[in-house]
Amino acid sequence: MKRAKVTVVGAGFVGATTAQRIVEQQLADVVLVDVVDGLPQGKALDMAESASLEGFDTRIVGTNDYRETQESDLILVTAGLARKPGMSRDDLLYKNAEIVSEIIKQASLYSPNSHIIMVTNPLDVMTHLAWKKSGFDSYRVFGMAGVLDSARYSYFLAKELDISPKDVRAMVLGGHGDSMVPLPNHSTVNGIPITQLIKPERIEAINQRTRDGGAEIVNLLKTGSAFYAPSSAVCAMAEAVLLDTGRILPCCAYLSGQYGMKDVYCGVPVKLGRTGVQQILELKLSPAELASLKKSAEGVRENIAKLSTKSFL
Q1: Residues 47 and 20: beta-carbon distance below 8 Å
Q2: Whole-angstrom Cα distance, residue 231 to residue 32?
Q3: Torsion of CA 111, 125, 11, 222, to 10 degrees
Q4: Mean pLDDT, the chain, as a whole number?
Q5: Which residues lie below 8 Å from residue 35, measured CB to CB, with a gap of 6+?
Q6: What distance lies between CA 60 and its chain's CA centroid?
Q7: Does residue 126 sit in the same domain as residue 226?
């Protein structure tokens, strides 16, 4: 049987670690792409040389040429700039829009039947941009944020209760950042709602720590940002698609009426499988939760409007 093929665009920490996880788990052969000459080639060779020690026979190659990505089943886009001192949020938005537009143009040309998972920030906006630039059906283009934010939420809840994170199922919807919407009423410990186990004031403190999860790591590292947990989140999504598991994960997906919203990408629980987003699950949210989710989506709309004025869309 032909082995699946995955393209990872961006050989930085998130992209390289994602590529490593995919080949070590033997999910697919990987093509690691970057614009920096020698960077993807060197990292791919380094990973490949560990095959006999780690026990995998999947292949990984590095390249600067999108022609080597031809007929990929899945394209994971991690490339982009981090915000630098003196750079406004709009500066970052426009610069990453330029980067993502070129990536999607090249990647979709050589793999027109692929699915696209976006990781580049601002995540929800870049996912919408990738959908428009690729011309793919919306269910084939989705983004990673909720999986990562929910994983962080699970860890913080487990730490609070001094239990195994494996027993926690947490749910975070909405955008990636201050506008994310942790859902305590839909987060459980082996089926027990966390609202029965943790006091409300502690839950709110954990919710806020989850919202600040990325910034907390940035502040500790001083330079750079998180990549171990983000790569795990991307890999979980890739596995669901490549193995057609039908796993339920909170992902950035296109809404066409769900939760009372249309024509916008937002973090919601979805069923992921070989065809991409196979179903969007509509949870029963409180009025406050639904309002927060809609507020998150409005932020996405505002940034999409900014891209439209700059002729990106």
Answers
A1: yes
A2: 14
A3: -170
A4: 95
A5: 64, 79
A6: 21
A7: no
Domain count of the fold of the chain: 2
Residue 179's identity, in one-letter code, is S
Residue 313 lies in a domain: no
* Closest to 40 in 3D by CA, of 77, 65, 59: 65
Identify the band that residue 87 occupies on the pLDDT scale cut at 50, 70 and 90. Answer: low
Sole residue written with tokens 């926690």: 168
Tell me if 161 is assigned to some domain.
Answer: yes
Q: Is residue 282 part of a domain?
A: yes
109: containing domain: 5-143
Residue 161, classified by CB atoms within 10 Å of its CB into exposed (0-12), middle (13-18) or buried (19+), is: middle
Question: Domain holding 42: CATH number?
Answer: 3.40.50.720
For residues 152 and 288, state if they share a domain. yes
Place of tokens 């906006």: 125
- Structure-block tokens of residue 174: 């909405």
Which of 143, 158, 185 is the last residue before a domain boundary?
Answer: 143
Q: Is residue 204 part of a domain?
A: yes
| Res 296: pLDDT | 92
Same domain, 73 and 183: no
Amino acid at site 289: E
Sign of CA dihedral 67, 68, 71, 72: negative
The catalytic residue positions are 176
pLDDT confidence tier of residue 262, bands split at 50, 70 and 90: very high
pTM over 0.70: yes
Q: What is the pLDDT of residue 312?
A: 87
Question: Which residue, chain included where needed, has tokens 């966390």?
Answer: 194
Alpha carbons 251 and 238: distance in angstroms, whole number: 12
